[in-house]
Amino acid sequence: MANTTCYHCGDECGKNGVQFDEKEFCCNGCKTVYEIFSSNGLSTFYEIEAKAGTTPNELRGKYNFLDNQEIVEKLVEFNEEGVQVVSLMIPSIHCSSCIWVLENLNRLHPAITVSQVDFPKKTIRVTYKTGDFSLKALVLLLGSIGYEPNISLETLEGKKNTVDRSLIYKLGVAGFAFGNVMLLSFPEYFEVEEFWLDQYKGVFRWLMFAFSLPVVFYAAQDYFVSAYKGLRSKLLNIDVPIALGILVLFLRSTMDVALDLGSGFFDSLTGLVFFLLLGKFFQQKTYAYLSFERDYKSYFPIAVTRLGTDEKEEDIQIYKIKKGDRILIRSQEIIPVDCILIKGTAEVDYSFVTGESQAVFKEYGEKLFAGGKQLSGVLEVEVLKSVSQSYLTQLWGNSVFSKDKASQFQTLTDRIGKRFTIAVLTIAFLATAFWLYHDSSMALNVFTAVLIIACPCAIALAAPFTLGNMLRIFGKHRFYLKNTNVIERLAQIDMAIFDKTGTLTTTKRETILYEGVELTTEETALLKTTLRASNHPLSRSLYDILKSNAIMTLDEFQEHTGKGIEGRANQHSIKVGSATYVGKETTAELANTAVYVSSDEDVKGRFVFKNTYRDGVKEIFADLASYMEVGILSGDNDGEREQLEKILPSQAQMLFNQKPEDKLEYIGKMQKSHQVLMVGDGLNDAGALAQSNVGVAVSENVNVFSPACDGIMDASSLGKLPTFMQLSKKSIQVIKLSFMLSLCYNIVGLYFAVTGQLQPVIAAILMPLSSISIVAFTTVCTNILGKRLK
Amino acid sequence: MSVIYVLLAISISVAVCFFAAFVFSVKKGQYDDVYTPSVRMLFDDELRKDTDNPDQNKKQIKQTESTNQ
């Protein structure tokens, strides 16, 4: 069965493959999903996209808390007269087959009436009749076909987030007015001396005035607000000349029309606002299914099972856990609080917290920290601290999580805007003074004309279009940024700090080294046979690398959860497992995960599991080190210092055994003299990511958890990091070039304005022309730059 | 009353109608998800073959539920 792939999910079938209905499946889960689909008329699933399925996880007992009506009430959107509506986030939605099968859920259960998928957000909205169906049944049904929803504390709290659509409305208003005003001012452009047009001039002009009212007072209000705020905090941001331009345009035009001096500049006014808003809209690219604000809440469970005094199980909300409570933690559940193990053997995966992929084993009486995931077996624990006071969650109390990096950063546009405003005002006053002296009737005309023509529309458009387009290009190469502001900050970075485990190393591949007395052929065969029977991840990886084809029949096999396994055949026995299990003294120098082997109670040696570094790590450092400082900040011990020294450039700093707070403080210290980029992955980096100028989270699967950050990078794109950095710098250059270009337009326009010959038609041509050429210039430039990523 | 007023009134009211339609569609959330409908419209009559044996369906559902409980 070598090299066949699963009909359902496309994974390799390997040795545990299942055959069913003349098709190969990698596991029973996939087979079950196939059975469900094929017997419910949903087999088209496999025709829309081949091998698109997801292996279902074991959910037994995990969603028992959905029996609690109080929790259900909080989760559902609508709940009346036997009908409930619920929106669920399903991270595994990824293709059109998913959409199809999820929208045909009613085929799987008659109580489901409507189900609708929102693909970009990866959510499904289901309407179902209660009665013989419930939310829990729905979640289990979804789970059984491989679409397990993500129900976390975040879902419970953040339900009432309404979509802000005001920008679309404003854009609509401005576009509507712009089109109509253009149409109405057409006759004026040609200045034909025609009786009918002359007679109705007034009607057309007042209509244009009417159309411009909602544009000035509704669509453009953000600019006035922003300019006012800027002035109040004594800042001349780019919105000041914009707001001034809009205001002057409106007042001058109204005056012109009222006094019958001319047709006014209503076409330029509405066009200006429309283009500005278009830029804003373009900049607003969001990755709806990614969250950059996640904290522990997004992956902690909503409820846990509390054990009452008489061993009675009760599902309670996580906030209601008190110190001293006894709670039950099942296999694959997250430990929500710091606690002490009182029953069972814990095998905890702390990869969320530390990024370390190998599970640790804990015994009775040992302390477990919140954030770990129990891998096998049920635990009973006693709570030491409530959720918000646990070691991990306390980190979020730090003030760095509440500060907004974007608002503290002065963008390039704002910096230019300041000088620009001063220059424009100077020119306006000088020109007015000149005309007051020569021909005072022209003075007001010239003053307003300068402010109108100098309105920095093109400048205000350069940054949104350049950065917005760059953001999309980055997104295509799996580097997802929170907003365009991040690119500007990225361009200023002069120091890059990396986390080690999970960021530079991959959890997908491991190097296994053997240390100790060489095993004989028979021992290897016995070892391999023994490992074959075990389902433990370490056993699996070890099994795959052992070179032996002889499969023996075991006389005896024993698996001791959390300790190791033992196999016996032909009067020989072999033990694989932790040091204490095989009878070796634990040594303190243990830096890596290791599995010990003993044959006939005689310790032979150990297999050391080492994380492998991602491809291209060395190149990244070599590249980055040529123009910035680099460093490593690891939560692990310094077991791999030597290996790292080979990869890193000599001047790189390396710090080990860093606690989350240490990382945060270190970044803060470095920020006194540097602009720091932090690249991390786990929750332990969350503080450092928030503190740094730009925090980038590296993730093997961007849909799964990543801590709060400014950008999420798919692990496969890590090698492109230096290119991304270069591109950000180039983007800033593109913006600067666009500024030059738009200044040229401004100088031409100012010539007309200062000499007092600015006709509405010139303004109406110049303004859209400059805006469109800037948009075209930036788009072409960024697309050419983007080609470098391939 | 000149005909130009009538024409203006008609042109503006048509424009306003479209604008109202735009506002209405935004309000209803039609622009919130612009991707899924484009995929959805491609599926229509894929439900086929075994639509005529509901018994089997019911049996299957029971099996579904028991998988995880």
From TrEMBL, chain B:
It comes from the Bacteria. The keyword Lipid biosynthesis does not apply. Residues 46-58 have a biased composition (Basic and acidic residues). Keywords: Membrane, Transmembrane, Transmembrane helix. Pfam families: FixS (PF03597). The chain crosses the membrane at residues 6-26. Residues 46-69 are annotated as: Disordered. NCBIfam families: ccoS. This is Cbb3-type cytochrome oxidase assembly protein CcoS. It comes from Flagellimonas olearia.
